Amino acid sequence: MLKLLWTPAAAAAPDADAYKRAADTLSSGDAILAVPRDRDTAFTGRDALRQAIRDWLARRSLSDQPVKLMLHGFDYDPREAAGPDEDPYSLVYGYPGEAGPNHRLSWLPLVRECDEAGRSRQETAIAFAWVSTGSLTDYAGAGWGEPYQYACVDLVCLAARAVAEVLRILADEGARVDVLAHSLGTRLFTQAVAAFGPGDGTLNNVVLLDGAEFSVDAAATFAGRGFSVVNVTNEEDKVLVAGAEQLGDPSRLPGTIEACSLGRYGLGTVQGWEGIAAYPPNWVDIALDRQDVQAWFKANGGYTLTATDGDRVHPSGGLNHWACYTEPGNRAWLTDLLWKPGCNGAAFAAIAGLPKGRRRASQPVFAGVGIPGGTPMTMDARIALQRGNQGGAMG
C-alpha cells in the first residue's frame, strides 16, 4: 500500500493573508509536494512525489490490474499527534487482525491488499489520507461554527488539488485507476475530477458510497465523463439527512435542490437531462434501500445487499452510513465491483431490467443547475451568514 498523507497549512478564511500565503503538503515518506494556495504559484516537490509513485508502481502486485485509489470521508486526522482513533491507517486503511480493526471496518480486503485476517499482503492500492476535520481553533479560524463546514467547504477543495496531481502522475505513467470513495470522500473525488480538467486521464472504474457530495455539483462535474461509475445510494442513511444536507454549506438551504446529496438522490433520472447536458454514459445509481434492487442482484450474482447495519459492527452503525461497506453481502458485491470484469457502471447502465435510481417516483432535476456561487469566502460573510441562520436552517 502506498501511503499518501495530505496536511493543510494555515486555517483561515480565503480572504486572509495567512490563507493566501499558505502551502498545503502531500507527502509519501521523504517525498513532499507543496501545493500553494495561490493558484499562480507553482507546486514544488513534483519530481520527488512522481518518483515515489513510480517506485511503488514498479513493485506493486497485480501490475496488469488498475491501481485502487482509496478516498476516506469526514472526521479523520492522519497526523501523529491526532491519535489512533482518528487515523485512517488504523481504521479504514488498517490491516485487520489482532492489532488492527475488525476486518469489516477495513477497506484493505476489498482492494486485495490482504485477506480478512490481515495476511496474504500485497501491493495493490494507494491510500490517500487527508485531514478531514479540525479543532475549534481550526474551524473558528476559518470563520465556521463547526468542523463539518470547514471540511466540506475548505479542506475538501484544497485536498482535491493534491488528488488531481496524483491522478495526473498516474496518467503520465500509464496506470489505470479504480477509485473507492465514501461519504465526504466522494466530494473529494468530484472536486479532484474538476481540478484535473478536461478528459478522463486513466480513470477506469469508480465506486462512490453514500456520497456526501451535492448532486448539483456532481452533475456539473461528471456531465459527459466516460469512465464507469457505480454510485451507491441509501435513503436509510441518517448521516446524510441530518449532516451532509443540513450542515455542509450554510449557503445551501436544507430542502432545496442545491442541498440534495449524491448518496440519497444520485444524478437524477436520465430524462431530466434532455436538452441540457450529457448524462454520463457509464454512470449508474444503485439504491441499496430498494427491495427490487436487492432482488435483482440476488438473482443476478447471488449478492445479499442491505441498506442497514445488522449487528452494529461500526460504533455508529445504527445511522446506516457505513453499512455500504461493513455488511458481509455488500462487501462481497464491492469486491466484485473493484475486480470482476463486467461488474461496473458501464455494464449496469446498459441493463434495461436493472432498477436504477431512488425508489421514489419524484426526482429533482440536477442537470444544468450548476454549482451555486453563494458560498461565502470571506470571514465577515461567513460569520454574517451563520448569524443570520441561527434559529433557522442552521439552528
The helix/strand class is alpha/beta
Distance N terminus to C terminus?
43 Å
| Strand and helix order | EHEEHEEHHEHEHEHHEHHHHH
* Uncertain regions spanning at least 5 consecutive residues: 391-395
Structural account:
The chain is built from 13 helices and nine strands. The chain has helices at 17-21, 46-59, 136-141, 147-172, 184-196, 215-222, 238-247, 262-265, 291-299, 323-326, 328-339, 345-349, 379-389; strands at residues 2-7, 23-28, 31-36, 67-71, 125-130, 177-182, 203-209, 228-233, 283-287. The chain has a nine-stranded mixed β-sheet with strand order 3-2-1-5-4-6-7-8-9, sandwiched between helices. Strand 6 (177-182), helix 5 (184-196) and strand 7 form a beta-alpha-beta unit. The longest helix has 26 residues, at 147-172.
Secondary structure elements and their pairing?
Blueprint: E1 2-7, H1 17-21, E2 23-28, E3 31-36, H2 46-59, E4 67-71, E5 125-130, H3 136-141, H4 147-172, E6 177-182, H5 184-196, E7 203-209, H6 215-222, E8 228-233, H7 238-247, H8 262-265, E9 283-287, H9 291-299, H10 323-326, H11 328-339, H12 345-349, H13 379-389
Parallel strand pairs: 1-5, 4-5, 4-6, 6-7, 7-8, 8-9
Antiparallel strand pairs: 1-2, 2-3
Helix pairs in contact: 4-5, 5-6
Which tags fit this structure?
single chain, 395 residues, alpha/beta, nine-stranded mixed sheet, 9 strands, 13% strand, globular, disordered C terminus
